[in-house]
Amino acid sequence: MGESKKYPQYVAAFTACLGSLAMGTVLGWTANISEDMKHFTYNGINIDDDSVGWIGSFATLGAAASCLPIAFFCNIVGRKRAMICLTAPFMVGWLLVVFAKWLWMMYLGRFLTGFAGGAFCVAAPIYISESTEKTIRGALASYFELMLTVGILVAYIFSMFLEMKVYTITMAMFPILFVIAFAFQPESPIFYLRQNDVENAKKSLIRLRGNHYDVDKELEILKLDMVEEKQKKVPFCESIKKKAAKKATFITLIIMIFQQTSGINAVVFYTTAIFESTGVHIDSKVSTLIFGVLQPIATFLSTFVVDRLGRRILLIASNLGVGISVAVLAVFFTLQNADVFDAETLHKVGFVPLVSLCLYCVTYSFGMGPVSWVLAAELFPPEINSIGSALAGSTSWVCAFIVTKFYFNLQSSIGGDACLGSVCTGAVEGWTGNISEDMKKLSFNGITITEDHLGLIGSLSSLGSVFACIPSAYLSDWVGRKTAILLLIVPLLLGWLLIILAQEFWMLGLGRLLCGITDGAFYALLPMYVTEISEKDIRGGLTAYFDLFLTVGILVSFTVANFLDIYQYTIVVGCLPILFGLIFCFQPESPIFLAMKGKEKEASQSLHRLRKRSYNVTDEVEGIKLIVNQNHNHSLLTTMRKKYTRRVMLICFPLTILQPMSGITVITYYTASIFASTKVDLDEKLCTVIFGMVTVFSAFLTTLVIDKLGRRTMLITSLLGSSLAIGILALFFTLQYRQLVDESVIAALHFLPIVSVSLFTLTFSLGYGTVPWLLISELFPPEIKSLAAGCGATFNLTSVFLVSRYYFDLKSAMGIDITFYLSSIINLITGVFVYYYVPETSGKSFAELQALFRAE
């Protein structure tokens, strides 16, 4: 018997993903017409910014609502039938939008189309992961994100040439195209086996592998896997209490939250509005089209590498790129809102927003966009694959709702500078980012490193961080903030010494644990120290320095790793704590701590060092004493327990909640509006075309590297790239609207908006768009995958809804640059989380993944 055929599997995956293409048209529908709807109405309905926000976000809210129901529906009627049934709400929703006479009809229509599209986000990855071989599973699963970006691009293009009514009718035809193509594909063989229908399962495998392939061996393996899973199956309440289940849920939900909060939804949904906020003269629709082109291209390219490079590598690289791009965009908006730019300077630097968004698009599309969904589809065992994917999808769309709905509120209520520090969060724990694959291939100090070891290397540092927070708080109240921070250099140096001199794996693991202890303590103590020594009017900005230097640390580690071997690189990184200690030892103790100890004189002296000598610190000392006395009777243990509980809750859901906040929702929905906001003297339609081309390029790269680099790598790469792109766009808006430079500078920077938007789309599609969902399916153990995946998906979809709904509100409230600074910050934070907690799943079967995870 010959080898299996790949062509039938590619066809099945492609036709299944036509449903995600239909969802892409839903997401991209508002991008180029949001401004036209406000200016010319829609079917006679008056549309304002608030209405546009609801129109955009209701689709994500509907998507969030569908994830859990579709999971159960898939288990009842099958993956294929469930997906075909979704055509009904798709068509009803589009009909309501086409013939809407009142806003509620548009809202309901958008909700129904989002409901159907969100269900595809769950069903399609499940179907693909269960129908394809593991050697091409990552690439084919990334087709979901690829077709989603293609759908967005299609919407961008048609909106430029058709009247709104005709354009809307055209978009309504794509669900029909899906059902016609997909009706001829076989059902998932795993679903048949769950129904004890071995005969049809074999027929399905033959159709998917070819007539000359002996499917009996694969069929027996699948049957044995199911028997083993049934034997290990325990009541849900018991399974959810297991450490492995909790860890899997934590990882998956965090990835989905951070994916949506990277800024992708704000950029996708409100691209036009973002570019208009830059004050640069650029055709917003052209810029939107450019963004739309970039995203599918990047996603497509990622399909070629996702199985070769590995999920982990793509995720890490993507996270870094996203963070940088969003940071640049945020800086631009900060400078712009600070009136640094005059008209001439703004004209010269007008290219910055476009470049940053393009960079963000590219980096996001390479990892964060596709790899997240790939992981979600791979990790879940068959019996709970549907529910697990549903949880991931719901979390993602909940986050997307929040991002799209409240984008404009945040933009109007806060400034770009306040968010710039958060953009840089993620510099901590960058050591393994560029060397994990080298450690596996070349060993480390003669120590053989396996996937299990890499999982432990990443998790031990985070484990140390968890255990360090509460003890470090007690230590800081005992010996002081400054002294405690300096003492923490000792375990950090010991940890690096153990890693450098490691001859056995336990030394490497212990070193990572000690480094993690210091990292966790720094997370607790450094922000606390900064807030206690700074004045209230600059406290927020100074506290943001913590996140800023986190990203600098990541950048340094990644950069040095490219030029030195692993051993030399580790020595260089291990010397950084010494540099920190030499600089920090000359700083004063926290005045609040001194006041807590009754040392009022020393507290005054500390304040004098921190303020000007001529500053009268008496009133501030009295205020500190009042604060100390009010909290004197509060138990430190009780306080730390409450904080720990809040912290645990906050870090359990970031990936799916934050993904829409990455910028993808806003850019997809309102791309033209973003480019129009730049006011750059560029052809907006041309910019939009360029943006769309970059999107396609990033999607293509994802198919190439997702299984080579790994899910984890692609997701991190996507997050960082998206952050960088959004940062560039934010910087452009800052320079322009805050008048930090003259018009000549803005004119010279006219290319930045389109480049940044395109880069954002590219980076998002390469990891963040796909990997979180793929991780949901790969990582969760059978016992709790259903609930974990359902919750994750619900949060994500709600975030999408909120982002699309409130983009314009946020823009009006706090400025467009601030909005993108926030997305950039979120993307960097997500990249750090992926580095610590996400294991590599590329090339592993479901049984192997479960064994690996349980071993950790």
Automatic annotation (TrEMBL):
Recorded coiled-coil stretches: none
Membrane disposition: Multi-pass membrane protein
GO molecular function: transmembrane transporter activity
A cellular-component GO term for this protein: plasma membrane
UniProt-annotated location(s): Cell membrane
Pfam entry (one): Sugar_tr
Transmembrane segment boundaries: 52-77, 84-104, 110-128, 140-158, 164-184, 250-274, 286-306, 313-334, 354-375, 387-408, 454-475, 484-503, 509-530, 542-560, 566-586, 648-669, 689-706, 713-735, 747-775, 787-808, 820-838
Keywords annotated in UniProt: Cell membrane, Glycoprotein, Membrane, Transmembrane, Transmembrane helix
Domain of life of the native organism: Eukaryota
Domain Major facilitator superfamily (MFS) profile: 397-842
Family, similarity comment: Belongs to the major facilitator superfamily. Sugar transporter (TC 2.A.1.1) family. Trehalose transporter subfamily.
Listed name of the protein: Major facilitator superfamily (MFS) profile domain-containing protein
